[in-house]
Design brief:
This protein is mostly helical and about 160 residues long. It contains 6 helices and 2 strands.
Length: about 160
């Protein structure tokens, strides 16, 4: 019995894993350091598997085509730079286009208040019926295939 009272009266603190803003800077730093160390350890342990996979799939060809042949390296690097420049230019053009198109549109406005009349109109009812529905604690609405309300059943609460 006392355990039940303790559980009911216990202060419920928010779980810190879901609210990192409640952690101190030192706690976040220690967590980041431990996380980084864990990743480094995992990579160190994974490295032999990566080496075996690279031998299997012919990474030794990387030496022949990239490291030993500077012309292939420069050609590949040139293609990469051109591709990155074109992708960046396309992104900048798209961003400028959207800026010009939406610069005066302020779409971050709160929605207008929902009145009983608007709610009644959307339900296909009158305002008095909507007010009655709002006073009830539990109501079951039955809809037809088109979403129109066809039956309202008031349920008593236990």
């Amino acid at each position: 019995m006392q355990d039940m009272k303790r559980q009911r009266g216990a202060v419920r603190l928010p779980r810190i894993i879901h609210r990192p803003d409640l952690q101190s800077r030192a706690q976040r730093s220690v967590f980041a350091l431990l996380s980084g160390a864990g990743w480094m350890l995992w990579l160190y342990l994974f490295l032999p598997l990566a080496t075996i996979a690279s031998w299997t799939f012919g990474v030794h060809r990387f030496d022949a085509y990239v490291l030993d042949s500077h012309s292939h390296s420069w050609a590949s690097l040139t293609i990469y730079v051109i591709t990155i420049a074109l992708a960046g230019a396309a992104l900048l053009i798209w961003a400028f286009y959207n800026y010009r198109r939406f610069r005066h549109a302020d779409r971050r406005q709160p929605a207008s208040a929902l009145t009983s009349e608007h709610l009644a109109l959307s339900f296909g009812m009158n305002a008095a019926q909507v007010a009655e529905l709002q006073r009830r604690r539990r109501v079951t609405l039955t809809h037809d295939a088109h979403g129109n309300i066809i039956d309202v059943k008031n349920e008593s609460t236990r």
